[in-house]
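task queued by scheduler; priority normal; single chain, no ligands, no partner chains; default sampling; output format set to structure tokens
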Amino acid sequence: MITKKFISVLVIMLVGSGFLFAQDYKYIGAAKCKMCHNKPNKGEQFNKWSKLKHANAMKSLVSQKAIDYAKANGIADASKEAKCLKCHSTASTVPAKLNAGIKPTEGVSCESCHGPGSAYKAVSVMKNQKLAIQKGLIVPDEALCKKCHNDENPFFQGFDYAAALKTIAHPDPTLQ
């Protein structure tokens, strides 16, 4: 006969083991992603990203337009303002304990869109998208993009997801 006490202990053990084995995925930084995602036969995703606005998002916070906006709105330095950094720097939103290599200068890095890469970075995992997703890979969608591309941005001029997707496309030809 199973007692309530036995069931309670079993539930506590099962729930507790989930906490013991839970993993906080760490952000590894674009330099680690570059190791595999910059080869010509794989699509040179890193090179494509590094030439786009996402990679250079921090630079926009020190533009004259940003300086003027900041001054007019009581912001001392847009490049240090949390409201700005949340969308211009992946690293700025990452808790220190989860930062394993991401740098603020990366701007909107790979892991802003694809999630922290520590557990899915291995080639053996990346070859299996289902496994990679289980290990933290995010397949970005319109809702993810709209977390930043929205009217909270003082320079927002609308967002066309389909057009934006074409602009940032960086497919892996080996997966086509």
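post-processing summary
- The chain has one domain: 23-36+44-171.
- The radius of gyration is 20 Å.
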